[in-house]
Amino acid sequence: MDNFTFYSPTYFDFGRGAESHVAELVHRFGGTKVLFHYGGGSIKKSGLYDRVADCLKKEGIAFVELGGVKPNPRSGLVQEGIQLCKSEKVDFILAVGGGSVIDSAKAIAAGSVYDGNFLDFYRGKAVIEKALPVGTVLTIAAAGSEGSGNTVITDEETQIKKGAKSDWLRPKFSILNPELTCTLPAYQTAAGATDIMIHVCERYFSNTEEVEITDRLCEGILKTIIYETPRVIENPENYDARANIMWAGMLAHNNVCGVGREQDWASHHIEHELSALYDVTHGAGLAVIAPLWMRHVMKTNPNKFITFATRVWDIDLNENNPEETALKGIEAFEKFLKNIGMPSSFAELGAKQEDIPLLTDKLMSGRETEGNYVKLTRQDIIEIYESAVR
């Protein structure tokens, strides 16, 4: 196990009706004037918008609002939010929604106390050294942004999707009520579950040795998602299944599973180019890319895939042909994704083969290799994209 530091200060309020505590928590963490940040009309249709707004009003907490966050959040709305925070002297940001809303809120939080262009943080030109405090009310289990210091934004000028991270961006509090996810369509639920699984896999597929504790944490989360996702798709109002998935989503990405070990992140980076260019659902894009990445790198480094097959998918080890065992694990993962309704090809995403050079150029700009479990070259990236064309 490698040396590491781990800082996770977020206060979690989990369970039925937890959103009724939002004003109390804003007060606790110093908010006096709030930016109420959200996405489309779903929180208004569900009544969540009114419940949150009423809580703030009853406690005398002033707020301004900014809706309109889209999946794969855009830089333009972030810029609008930064200007609003500065002009209205906002001192706290409340994100009500899924990972896109929370990621947008974090970008606004960092940009509101920065004199330059907030995209400097995403372009590697500046480091986040302070930010406005952020609180969240989560409505979809997927991105894990409610517990992480990570944020991903699509630069509308370049159509490049990049991430930034800092402990300053970890939410002060996150309200997690599984009931708020019960009205999600099956496709969104499945895409969220896929995102959770790949957040774990980015950490699990590592060359660092003697990391049994984080290996077992990763495997436990993966097996939980494998068990609970079909149950919640069959019965969307299964509170206990929703609860387990929601907490798994947070654990998958607050980095408790990733400390002390080299991480990969190639699947996410390869997919980011798809969601930036075609605006596909991130989890759906990962459902296409991650198994293809697995098949590609397994040929070079099968070791962790053997463990993945035996521990996660309960496949018997073929001692005479362990690579066959590894392949069966990948096939089991592919079958699971298909069974929960996820895509497996460019055609299902609306992606185009002729765009592969553009996707590759954007991904590999300024770098020679991608990922860590196996260092991928430009040709490797092309081959992974090409394998999705069928």
Helix and strand layout, with pairings?
Elements: E1 11-14, H1 22-28, E2 33-38, H2 42-45, H3 48-58, E3 62-66, H4 75-88, E4 92-97, H5 99-111, E5 134-138, E6 150-155, E7 160-165, E8 173-176, H6 186-204, H7 212-234, H8 239-253, H9 266-278, H10 282-298, H11 303-312, H12 322-339, H13 346-349, H14 356-364, H15 378-387
Parallel strand pairs: 1-8, 2-3, 2-4, 4-5, 5-8
Antiparallel strand pairs: 6-7
Helix pairs in contact: 4-5, 6-7, 6-8, 6-10, 7-8, 9-10, 9-14, 10-12, 10-15, 11-12, 14-15
Protein described:
With 390 residues, the protein is an alpha/beta fold. Helix content is 48%, strand content 11%. It has 15 helices and 8 strands. The strands form 2 sheets. It has a 6-stranded parallel beta sheet, sandwiched between helices. It has a two-stranded antiparallel sheet with strand order 6-7. A hairpin with a 4-residue loop joins strand 6 and strand 7. Helix 7 packs antiparallel against helix 8 (239-253), helix 9 (266-278) crosses helix 14 and helix 14 packs antiparallel against helix 15 (378-387). The chain is globular, with a radius of gyration of 20 Å. It starts with 10 loop residues before the first strand and ends with a helix.
Number of strands: 8
**Parts with pLDDT < 50 across at least 5 consecutive residues:** none
Give the helices and strands as they follow along the chain. EHEHHEHEHEEEEHHHHHHHHHH
Number of helices: 15
Major sheet strand order: 1-8-5-4-2-3
The quaternary organization reads as single chain
Major sheet description? 6 strands, parallel
Q: What structural category characterises the helix and strand content?
A: alpha/beta
State the distance separating the first and last CA atoms: 40 Å
Mean pLDDT: 97
Q: Radius of gyration over alpha carbons?
A: 20 Å
> Shape from CA axes?
globular
Strand content: 5-15%
- Portion in helices: 40-55%
